[in-house]
Structures are given as C-alpha cells and as structure tokens.
Amino acid sequence: MDEREFFTEATEQRTHTLTCPKCGQAGEYRVTWVVRRKRAQLPRHADERDRARFAKAQSYMVRRDDKLSCTNVRCRKPFEITGLQTLAFLTD
Is the pTM higher than 0.70? Predict the structure, then answer.
C-alpha cells in the first residue's frame, strides 16, 4: 500500500513575516503549503504491515514555494526562503 492512501492532500496559503535579504525590509508574505492530513480510518485492503505504518503516520505540511518577490516597491527582487522550515508536523 502506498503512503498517499493514508493521507488527504490539500493546498493552503499561510501568511508569514519574512525579511528580504537584499533591502532588509520585513513584510507579510503568502507562502503555499501542501498539507497532508492523516485519514480517520485505514483503507480496507490493508495488511498488518500497513496497519503498523498507519499507526505511526502523522499529519504534516510541506512548503511548496522556494522563492518569493520582495514587497518593497523599490526592491522587487526575488529571494529564497531560508528562514522557514520546508516540512512541519501538525498537531491535531
């Protein structure tokens, strides 16, 4: 059984405060995340090994955006997101 069958997947945008490394101005940026939430039940065609993997599975989200453009009108340069994790576990 594939791991994708344990989760429901959705795309969300969350707001984070980031600082542009070029101009040094902080701003609110919308970052896209892929959120994978653990299903309430295991699929019916699962065996014992799949049950063990499902018990250990945990909801998490993965950052989709790697670069953003500065919101400062004078700068507008793209920068990489370095101060934000790429993977975050969710507490339900």
Answer: yes
